[in-house]
């Protein structure tokens, strides 16, 4: 029984290890931004790669009625951005059907040495993080004809403290990508400006959030079309939990097994166990008893040797 339990636990660990390796596997990015190297404007470089699946969700309160519109991010879009420039930033812009999604990434600033020309733009030290997200929509009526002709400008910055995506704002090593494909990231925009296109009035009854179902991005130190060793969005994965818990489970099973054996004796499938116990008891009685007299209820004395 114990052997079966141990084999099952080992098999579970093996399966989860395989899943972890698959999650870390490389894949080619759908969105690839090529821009001029600011140090050599004649040279084009692949500056940022990304895969994004999700929706831009808009909410509108029309009097007492609440309306919502969802705009799905496309599989392909016009992309542009910037290489890691003098401000140590990298920008990804997706444009489609009058919608622009702008994501700005920043990295740790590396102060150059006095003898160094330019900036340390390809240093391997430091972290990068998502600095801000901006959503611009030319006319929401194009997506939902029941809404008035309205343009939307919505933004969120890291300093607002609302970006709840773990390492995505706390910092990712610049040599690595970021990957989150198994949980939803909800990013509510903190600032939304809506303008009625018919009379140019400002509307205050719009709100926007970005719902990301899958995200992979590498904004710095891009060496090819594949993501480089992505840092997963969940630090404590099932694989890590198994590594921590498995030795404890082994120990508890070991202690329980021998504790039960100590209390109840050898298991039923232990050959010759019962005979050995009786033989040991007989030996103990023989070796310790030198004889004694005992009187029974009928008055007969019995001598045991």
How would you characterize this protein structure?
It is found in: Cell membrane. InterPro entries: Lysosome-assoc_membr_glycop. Keywords: Glycoprotein, Membrane, Signal, Transmembrane, Transmembrane helix. It is a single-pass type I membrane protein. The chain is α+β, with helices and mostly antiparallel strands. The chain folds into two domains: 80 residues; 204 residues, Porin (Beta Barrel), CATH 2.40.160.110. Helix content is 23%, strand content 39%. Strands 4, 5, 6, 7, 8, 9, 12 and 13 form an eight-stranded antiparallel β-sheet that branches. Strands 1, 2, 3, 10, 11, 14 and 15 form a seven-stranded mixed β-sheet that branches. The two termini are 45 Å apart.
Provide tags for this entry.
single chain; 305 residues; alpha+beta; Porin; 2 domains; eight-stranded antiparallel beta sheet; seven-stranded mixed beta sheet; 4 helices; 23% helix; flat; disordered C terminus
Q: Enumerate how many helices there are, as a single number.
A: 4
Following the backbone from N to C, one meets helices and strands in this order, namely HEEEEEEEEHEEEEEEEHHEE
Which spans of ≥5 residues are poorly predicted at pLDDT below 50?
5-25, 283-292, 296-305
| CATH architecture assignment name of the largest domain | Beta Barrel
* Straight-line N-to-C gap: 45 Å
CATH class of the largest domain: Mainly Beta
CATH third-tier fold name of the largest domain: Porin
């Amino acid at each position: 029984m114990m052997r079966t339990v141990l084999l099952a636990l080992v098999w579970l660990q093996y399966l989860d290890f395989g899943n972890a390796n698959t999650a870390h596997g490389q894949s080619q990015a759908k969105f690839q931004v090529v821009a001029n190297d600011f140090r050599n404007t004649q040279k084009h470089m692949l500056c940022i790669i990304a895969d994004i699946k999700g929706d831009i969700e808009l909410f509108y309160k029309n009097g007492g009625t609440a309306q919502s519109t969802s705009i799905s991010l496309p599989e392909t879009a016009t992309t542009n951005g910037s290489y890691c420039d003098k401000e140590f930033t990298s920008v990804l812009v997706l444009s489609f059907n009058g919608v622009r999604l702008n994501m700005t990434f920043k990295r740790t600033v590396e102060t150059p040495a006095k003898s160094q020309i330019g900036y340390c733009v390809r240093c391997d030290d430091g972290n990068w993080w998502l600095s801000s997200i901006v959503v611009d929509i030319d006319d929401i009526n194009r997506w939902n004809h029941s809404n008035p002709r309205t343009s939307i400008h919505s933004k969120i910055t890291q300093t607002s403290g609302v970006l709840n995506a773990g390492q995505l704002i706390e910092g990712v090593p610049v040599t690595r990508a970021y990957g989150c494909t198994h949980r939803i990231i909800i990013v509510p925009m903190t600032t939304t400006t809506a303008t009625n296109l018919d009379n140019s009035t400002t509307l205050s009854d719009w709100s926007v959030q970005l719902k990301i179902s899958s995200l992979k991005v590498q904004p710095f130190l891009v060496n090819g079309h594949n993501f480089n060793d992505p840092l997963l969005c969940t630090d404590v994965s099932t694989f890590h939990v198994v590594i921590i818990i498995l030795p404890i489970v082994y120990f508890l099973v070991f202690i329980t097994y021998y504790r039960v054996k100590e209390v109840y004796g050898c298991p039923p499938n232990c050959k010759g166990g019962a005979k050995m116990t009786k033989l040991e008891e007989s030996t103990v009685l023989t070796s310790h008893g030198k004889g004694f007299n005992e009187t029974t209820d009928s008055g007969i004395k019995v001598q045991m040797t």
